[in-house]
């Protein structure tokens, strides 16, 4: 089966391109991207999409101007619209404190994304970005991720479809690409930076993979790529399973339930913690196994403990709750001004629902001493039932039983009548002061919940 037909079937099987889509091909001038451009141009009418190209000049090689001129001339000859964009990868690497290889990739994909969004806005059509990774690139990526330290997500390598990025040549070998171009008499450019072994991927390409082919198995690249495909299928299944299990571990306020997490298999539990941490941190880039282990450690034992994640993110264990977010993540009434106080005649408006955590109604005439808002003091109590002589509990003990975090117990400002606490927002309300059939005046308290 010839290369063009194979790629057409891959595009259709994986639904890479829809009818009427725009396709923006990244073309460097090297053999892989030139092959990609020719194949897509041959399929453009058959698959009913509109093809254009983009060339990114990284500003780090003397011959980069010639690469740009070559790419633009190639596109003109094929009748493919082409845009060239110049960036300074060396400056970006220095400013961000990253390697030149990483800076080039980040800038390149930034250009791809910006142009695709611009084209979508102009036309109202979906724009796919086609890049020319092939089978050997996949093997390099998997090895690179494995050596650097990766979970299953890294071992699946590059996906054929990832958002708007498509990789039509991912199952094609390098030698097939070069043979395709030679048969057509099509020239290409050679990027000498691809031969520099000081770049990590080049080292894998030039030194490690050839050694594995010679010493272990000549089909090393294909076997690694096949394993990546199985890893991708496994990861897709686990992603769905993780979503289902995570939903069962969520408390109504959005925290994770420690008890529910501990009931899950360790693999699923770690994945749930990683997803929650990544959502709070804005991605997985700086998260390591050590961070996930620190989250798992919070699940052990009881009480209130915390650990910190990249970007100033705090994970706080409060009894059966695990909260992950920008520090601080707790909330409590810290001032009398956090409360709204209203006095209304009984029956003038509906009473707040009993389950409302932030608004409570009280019988104003049952409040013998003036209502004050203050922090707890020794001797404070809360009645556990209505009527004179009803049992009560010390506020200190009640806060422990209601799992109020230790570090905020002395900072909470609560409504009191003398030594009687009327309400611990989010936890307990005193039955002794609730409205009944004889209530004439209703005191309505609303806590305006704020972040600490």
Structure description:
The chain is of the alpha+beta class and 452 residues long. The chain folds into three domains: 3-228, HUPs (Rossmann fold); 252-326, Uridine Diphospho-n-acetylenolpyruvylglucosamine Reductase, domain 3; 336-447, no CATH class. The chain is built from 15 helices and 20 strands. The protein has a six-stranded mixed beta sheet, with helices on both faces. Strand 14 (381-383) and strand 15 form a beta hairpin. The longest helix is centred in the middle third of the chain and has 29 residues, at 220-248. The chain is elongated, with a radius of gyration of 32 Å. The termini are far apart. The relative contact order is 0.08.
- The CATH architecture of the largest domain can be named as 3-Layer(aba) Sandwich
Largest sheet: 6 strands, mixed
Number of helices: 15
Instruction: Name the CATH superfamily assignment of the largest domain.
Output: HUPs
Q: Just give the CATH class of the largest domain.
A: Alpha Beta
Considering DSSP H and I runs of 4 or more, what fraction of the residues is helical? Answer: 40-55%
State the strand order across the main sheet.
3-2-1-4-6-5
Could you tell me the number of beta strands?
Answer: 20
Pairing-aware structural class of the strands and helices?
Answer: alpha+beta
Rg, Cα atoms, Å = 32 Å
First-to-last CA distance = 65 Å
Task: Give a short synopsis of this structure.
The chain is of the alpha+beta class and 452 residues long.
